[in-house]
Amino acid sequence: MNYYNALLPCLNRAWEPLVRKAGYEFRPPKLALKSKQVPATTCTGEAESAYYCPADEVIVIDWQDDLAEYKEDPLTGRVMMMDTMVHEYGHHVQELTHILTASWSREGWAKTQPEKLEWSRRTELQATCLGALFLGANKKSIGLSGNKLRFWEWHTQHSGDEYHPKKIRDHGSRKNQWLWAGPAFKTTNLSACNTFTAPANKVS
Fold it and tell me: Where in 10-146 does DSSP place strands (E)?
């Protein structure tokens, strides 16, 4: 939890001026440990891993998985913790700018399951993209270089729905995880993360 508490102010300082510039109120998210410090929210217990709960603007951390990863390999464990945090914070940015509400509304009104899943993927891939954008813009200050950077690239390139035990297609394919994260990391331009106007094959 100490690592997440240390990273959170960096994310707040990076995103606050951008959220305000876009005309929205900025509110820092709260942090909680899954199954230990999770406040009573409508989201409690709905996810198998770390997740963001928009009801109370809480990022819920799966500390047990993090601890196991860190004990096995501190470097890769730390990078995965960082990647999780910036992704979930991406959902917070979506919440503050009403993107999350709009996307979930479209998902809820979708008439077919494939259509629902596509809206979910557009939302999740954008959160991944926003996280990568933050990492690229702040790589020096957070020390993302050398082996850390190489592992983050490898991890991102090997993440996706193909790796889900149940093969649920709600977060985006391995190919498209990197399709959005890679350019965002390099350009650090918000326009690189507009998944909602992208063709279907780029959010598959």
Answer: 30-33, 51-53, 58-61
How many domains, in total, are found in the chain?
1
- Summarised one tens digit per residue, pLDDT across range 109-133 is 989 999 999 999 999 999 999 999 9
Whole-angstrom distance, CA of residue 14 vs CA of residue 26: 11
Query: How far, in Å, CA of 118 to CA of 62, rounded?
Result: 26
> In terms of residue numbers, what domain contains 103?
2-203
The helices-and-strands tally (H runs, E runs) of the chain is: 7, 3
Instruction: Give the number of other CB atoms < 10 A from CB of residue 39.
Output: 13
Beta bridge partners of 59: 31, 52
- Structure tokens that stand for 45 in this block: 């217990």
SS3 state at 58 = strand
User: Among 163, 159, 95, 164, which Cα is nearest to 128's?
Assistant: 159
pLDDT digits (tens, 9 = 90+) for 171-204: 999 999 999 999 999 998 999 999 999 999 999 9
Share of the chain above pLDDT 70, in %: 94
Helices assigned H by DSSP within 113-168 = 113-137, 146-157
Assign residue 23 a region: left if phi > 0, alpha if psi is -120 to 50, beta otherwise?
left
pLDDT band, residue 22 (cuts 50/70/90): very high
